[in-house]
Amino acid sequence: MTIQIECPHCHAQNRLDPARINDAPNCGACHAPLLTGAPLAATKDSLPQLLKHSKLPVVIDFWAPWCGPCQQFGPTFAAAAKDMAGKMLFVKVDTEAEPEMGQQFRVRSIPTLLVIEGNAELERVSGAMSAGQFKAWLMQFI
């Protein structure tokens, strides 16, 4: 099983063995680092692998393209991902494209944010937060 990761530099699609997620993988095309702090887009196939292999807490943003609060919160999520790179892994799940993921994680409204470490859900919150609120919420998991 491999996961697809888009290079944040050249936008090439890279297949990655999820077991290598903690090894600072580089792009096969441009050789730049794949994990620069940009949130990873997850699917029903890749998310279980990311959760299984990540040694870091995983922060998941369940969102949809038509959701206004989701769109407003997106830059806050991306900024936190960049600021906390190496401390947490940030993942986005598009519930429009992956509706079964929302069902599997019992997401009732969006945006919904989850923090998962190992196989355990540590906490969840629904609704967009300010940058300060989001960072304060995340700090309890580091």
From TrEMBL:
<dbReference type="Pfam" id="PF00085">
    <property type="entry name" value="Thioredoxin"/>
</dbReference>
<keyword id="KW-1015">Disulfide bond</keyword>
<protein>
    <submittedName>
        <fullName>Thioredoxin TrxC</fullName>
    </submittedName>
</protein>
<dbReference type="InterPro" id="IPR017937">
    <property type="entry name" value="Thioredoxin_CS"/>
</dbReference>
<feature type="domain" description="Thioredoxin">
    <location>
        <begin position="18"/>
        <end position="142"/>
    </location>
</feature>
<dbReference type="GO" id="GO:0005829">
    <property type="term" value="C:cytosol"/>
</dbReference>
<dbReference type="InterPro" id="IPR013766">
    <property type="entry name" value="Thioredoxin_domain"/>
</dbReference>
<keyword id="KW-0676">Redox-active center</keyword>
<dbReference type="InterPro" id="IPR049299">
    <property type="entry name" value="Thio2_N"/>
</dbReference>
<dbReference type="GO" id="GO:0015035">
    <property type="term" value="F:protein-disulfide reductase activity"/>
</dbReference>
<dbReference type="Pfam" id="PF21352">
    <property type="entry name" value="Zn_ribbon_Thio2"/>
</dbReference>
<dbReference type="InterPro" id="IPR036249">
    <property type="entry name" value="Thioredoxin-like_sf"/>
</dbReference>
